[in-house]
Design goal:
Elements lengths: L1 E10 L2 E11 L4 E5 L6 H8 L7 E6 L2 E2 L4 H7 E4 L11 H11 L4 H14 L15 H13 L5 E5 L7 H15 L3 E5 L3 H7 L2 E6 L2 E6 L1 H9 L2 E8 L4 H5 L4 E7 L6 E8 L5 H11 L3 E8 L3 H13 L2
Parallel strand pairs: 3-8, 3-9, 6-7, 7-8
Antiparallel strand pairs: 1-2, 1-4, 4-5, 9-10, 11-13, 11-14, 12-13
Length: about 300
């Protein structure tokens, strides 16, 4: 369990994080989103006890970051945006060093290294010097050190940077597998990655959380309405759609093609408007080809909450 309370961090006159509050339950995979400078990396460094906040606090599995930083570090696997690699070592030597720094010894150390190499796809470069392998393999090596000691909590900052599309798919699948039994915080600019791996998102802008929840929950909170796309066949007048109880407004109508009309309507939440629209269409003798709920994509939500919020 991760609990963050009124967290803030100042760098001189710059307030990078301002009064942030959130909680993450065990086994959740949560996306931490925001534009550059929003405070994502600062929050991750605080949660990994790399730095302390200027005010507020956080607890990891009940341990306060001020009181038990060493114990917390044992629970956490951290991959910063620039993986901490020693380029004069080969991959196996590096992982062996990192295992020993995590107090892994003997058979347990060998098994954990073998597992991390397998999971991160490093078999082909295991004896190569880190300074000779590609950026993608360096990123995988950094990911391997983060999961090596089987931590309960994983914090990944841009984990797929430098990977090709096939490698990205493999790492996404690894994060999904890890998320079945571990708590994962994932920061990335690739929003498709968040949609593919995360159950919930926290969206930051200018050091504050501007939205949190599932994309569906954020949609409802932002819009205060439900969007519905309808495909109807028949001689339909837009005024008829607008007159249905619970219809807030008609947002879009396309020119009929072979008698088929496409409508996008905004409905008042919990008004029963979907059923009312269905009944209206049946009573009018119109053929219902589709009634599909519509929501903003995560990308559209991100832009609306960060770009538009910054312009206020």
């Amino acid at each position: 369990m991760i609990e963050v309370s009124n967290l803030g961090k100042r760098y001189g006159s710059l307030e990078a994080v301002r009064g942030v509050n959130f909680a993450i339950n065990p086994g959740e995979v949560v996306g931490l989103l925001g534009p550059n400078g929003a405070g994502k990396t600062t929050i991750m460094k605080i949660l990994t006890c790399f730095m302390f906040p200027s005010f507020g606090t956080a607890t990891i599995n009940g341990w306060d970051i001020f009181d038990r930083p060493l114990e917390i570090k044992k629970l956490v696997g951290y991959l910063p945006e620039n993986a901490p690699l020693y380029t004069d070592l080969n991959v196996l030597e590096y992982l062996s060093f990192m295992a020993e720094s995590r107090s892994l010894k003997g058979k347990q150390k060998e098994e954990r290294i073998e597992w991390a190499i397998e999971e991160c796809g490093l078999k082909s470069v295991v004896y190569r010097s880190i300074d000779t392998i590609s950026k993608g393999f360096r990123q995988r090596t950094g990911l391997a050190q983060a999961i090596l000691h089987n931590p309960e909590i994983l914090i990944f900052d841009e984990p797929t940077t430098g990977l090709d599309p096939n490698q990205i798919i493999e790492i996404r699948e690894l994060i999904r597998r890890l998320g079945r039994e571990k708590t994962v915080i994932l920061s990335t600019h690739i929003l498709q990655e968040v949609e593919a791996t995360c159950g919930r998102v926290l969206i930051l802008n200018e050091g504050q959380i501007v939205a949190k929840g599932t994309p569906e929950e954020i949609n409802r909170e932002m819009k205060g309405e439900v969007l519905l796309e309808m495909l109807l066949k028949g001689n339909i007048k837009p005024s008829g759609v607008k007159a249905v109880p619970g219809v807030r407004k008609l947002l879009q109508i396309s020119s009929p093609s072979e008698g088929v009309h496409r409508f996008q309507v905004a409905l008042l939440p919990d008004s029963g408007a979907e059923e009312a629209l269905f009944d209206w269409a049946v009573e009018g003798g119109y053929k219902i080809l589709a009634m599909v709920p519509k929501r903003l994509s995560l990308e559209e939500l991100f832009i609306k909450l960060t770009r538009e919020g910054s312009e206020k």
